[in-house]
Amino acid sequence: MEQSSAGGTITRLYKGLTQLYTEVPYRFSRGAWAPPVWHYYFEVTRRCNLRCKMCQYIDWLETVPTRIQAEDELTTEEWLRVIDQTGRFSFITFTGGEVFVRKDFMQIFEYACAKRRVHFITNATMLTDERARRCVELAPRRLGGTGFNFAGVSLDGTQETHDVIRAQRGAFDKSVRGIQAIAKYRAEAGKRGPLIHINTVIQEANLDCLPQMPHVAREAGASVLNLLTETRVHDIPELGRVDPGTLSREDFRQPRIARARLEASLRKTLDEAERIGIEVRMPRMPFEEVINHYDQGYDLRKFDCRSIWSTLIVGAKGGVYPCWIQKIGNVREHSLNELRNNELARQFRQRRREGGFAVCRGCCEILYRDGAKISEPMALSAAGSRAEDSEKLVVK
After folding, report:
1. Is the distance from CB of 361 to CB of 388 less than 8 angstroms?
2. In contact, 3 and 186? CB cutoff 8 Å
3. Band of the pLDDT at 185, cuts 50, 70, 90?
4. How far are the Cα atoms of 307, 324, 327 from residue 241, in angstroms, in the given order?
5. pLDDT by residue (tens digit) across 103-139?
6. Three-class SS of residue 121?
7. DSSP character for 206?
8. What is the edge-to-edge ordering of all strands in the sheet holding 279-281?
9. Which of 37-41, 188-192, 245-249, 324-328 has the lowest mean pLDDT?
10. With b meaning 16 or more CB within 10 Å and e meaning fewer, what string describes 144-178?
């Protein structure tokens, strides 16, 4: 429970500070100028050793030869220079693809840990015992300090279900061993971090075993179960390069789950988590809206997006985005500081502030405006979800 309490406190602190940090520019900046970036997402590669059914890159992974997938990725030296451009007090999340597919990832990761607060997201199948030990060595003595603070591991079901979704027999056991190795070395070092959270995408394929995931998280050594909404927006060709306002919900396949089955599964999951003392983070919206996401949709006018005022994403080939649906430049041509408030970035923030886009659906970052109306199960919340564009603001 101590680990869970720490994770929950840090999550609430992070959300509260982000809200406070963006409040003035979001409300009052006519030119949509953003303050210095608070959180960076670095997609070091889109390559992966698994082929997950719900992966947004699955078509690319299955049709593009591995040799070509790696072409034009930022080099080690380029990533180190990007890290040097981040703010002293900022937070870095490394993601993919699978981060450990890059042979130089540990070098990039260690460099970041020496300078910033760091988090990575992995499937943990390549998280060897040696790597796990080194990761714990890079964790700060106190949570929130410079170094490796959080590990996010993707698990989408119990053993059999997970291996089917991931299209690799034994994937579940490899991932759990990776999580357990970090937990073991963390205990031996007497550290509280890195805290480990399990990321589980809510989908038709894992609905029946979802209530067992709190047990999976606890037994593996994680403190938080993070339930995420499924989205298919990355199926859209040239996403980020086309005007998001021209895209409609018909341009991507929306995941569907029967309302009664989804509600029953989620309530059982929350009840079981409470019973055994595992924190669950749900999408930041009322329970009914989570159900709506997989049914008729929801009204975007009820949601804000603060992330694009405090976050920058750097893609594997150097593209820079406040959100994946709008590219604003490339780090090979301009610095992060030059890009964060360029004309494209400010226009995008202004448009999103006035109303969302269809391709916002399923996002982990948009925030339900009236927090007081979030239902009781959502008190455990911290993930996210998305909505729709202006003409289609109310999704039917």
Report:
1. yes
2. no
3. very high
4. 19, 9, 6
5. 999 999 999 999 999 999 999 999 999 999 999 999 9
6. strand
7. G
8. 279-281, 224-229, 195-202, 147-154, 117-122, 91-95, 39-43, 311-314, 319-321, 329-330
9. 245-249
10. eebbbbbbbbbbbbbbebbbbbbebeebbebbbbb
Tokens 């550290």 map to which residue? 191
Q: Which residue has the tokens 């400010």?
A: 346
Residue with tokens 């220079």, as numbered in its chain: 81
Q: Could you report the per-residue pLDDT of 195-206, keeping only the tens digit for each?
A: 999 999 999 999
**Dihedral of alpha carbons 379, 95, 340, 359, sign:** negative
For residue 15, the one-letter residue type is K
Alpha-carbon gap, residue 286 to 1, rounded angstroms: 25
How many residues does this entry show for the chain?
A: 396
| Helices (runs of H) and strands (runs of E) counted in the chain | 14, 12
| Residue for token pair 């430049």 | 329
The span from the CA of 175 to the CA of 107, in Å, is 22
